[in-house]
Amino acid sequence: MFGFPRSTNCCPRSRRGWLRCKAMSSGRSTDRPHIRTLKEGLVKATKLFGVAVALLLVGAACTPDKGVGAPSSTNPASSATAAASEPITIGLLTPLSPPGDPAAGQLIQRGAELGVVYVNTVMKGVLNGRQVQLAVEDDAGTPATGATGYRRLVTEKKAVAVTGQFHSSVNIAVNEVANEVGVPVISTQGSAADITAKHYPVAFRTHVIDPFRASSWLSWIQQKGYKKIALIAETSDYGIGLVNETKAQAAAGNMNLTFDIEQFDHASTDLTPQLLKAKAFGPDLVINIGVGAPADLMLDQANTIGLYPAVPMLISYDTPTRAQWFQLHPSDGVGVYFIAYFSPKQELSDAGQWLATAYQAKYNEPPIYGALNAFADVIVIAQAIQKAGNTDAKTLITTLEDPAGYKGWAAVPVTFPKDGAGAFYHTWIPPILILQYTQANQNWRDAKLDASFSKK
User: Fold this and answer.
1) Looking at residue 85, what is its pLDDT?
2) Is residue 20 part of a domain?
3) What is the span of the domain harbouring residue 241?
4) Rg for the chain, CA atoms, rounded
5) Which distant-in-sequence residues (6+ apart) come within 8 Å of 38 by Cβ?
6) What is the total count of domains within the chain?
7) Within its chain, how far is the Cα of 15 from the centroid?
8) Does the pLDDT of residue 365 top 80, yes or no?
């Protein structure tokens, strides 16, 4: 074996390489005193420049690999300091393209991004000033895409927690992967019972659950005196779960209600067959259990066949609160009932007030629930990291369960009870409001409050 001297400018991987490096760095001068012409000077300058570039390229190409177990010239203390100052990544997994509900995803992303701003400015970061950053994945409202997006967030982008989920089917699929990987997920707007009913330690939620949604509208139905109810639902975990929960609670409560159940695929663009069957049933109320485009289609097509507004319609979530509602429904948007989870009359926390001001300034409109909740999810994760003192997943999960809770958008703290029964496990639930538009182009904040329900 040959003994090669160490060099910072070349890689001593062979005798030939060492000799090449030695030749390039010998420093031997060939200058002789004589009178140079301008042309000769330019030629020599060009050659010297070429040698310098070659030395740089050799040094770069021959830098030893820093694989596992490879020696490093980096100071360990410097590495630790650098790691301690790196941003902490929070993952956002939400629908930003069809067949998901991209309008919902956009609102969630807006709120989450402002949550990061709040953490880095108002909270001054976490863990001695470390900044947080957001890594975003589009789940497209598809379970397989969501599961892949979650894996990418936690393995490639090193997210310490993931939030932003909207579609229940996607959320349930993601939780199966999360339960295997161990990085916690906070559902922003997924309501199917199974999201938390399986009691996976990684699964958290800051949204209403189907049992509470069903019990709320059943109470409202009794207040209204309705008897014949048409449930028109998509065949997703959300739609099927709400149909089953509504029927089960009505039977258990001996409510003497009659149901007509019509179901459709989320990708359907013609709901006329289901609506005609519902019309033939002669309902007192139609409950619209579509998400995204199907919810809009159902309203418009029910109006076309004369089912609505002759028969009142309740939309199962807060899509009518979006700014484009009356642009989409200029002639049939008035009179509809809809579920909401936030009222402008509700008291906000100081963080919620900050979000309301910042959102209005940035987007020239007040925030609605999806943005508020995503904002809160991000700052709750940051508070838990700060309280835990590190980003270890198991420690973070235990810390999120702290009964003292965390500051969210509402005046009451966000808590995740580990002793919650069934779907109430690890779930913080906002109130359910039933609102109604009574005028064209009405701001949802001025809509009629027909009923309000809070978790007991």
Assistant:
1) 81
2) no
3) 211-340+434-453
4) 30
5) none
6) 2
7) 56
8) yes
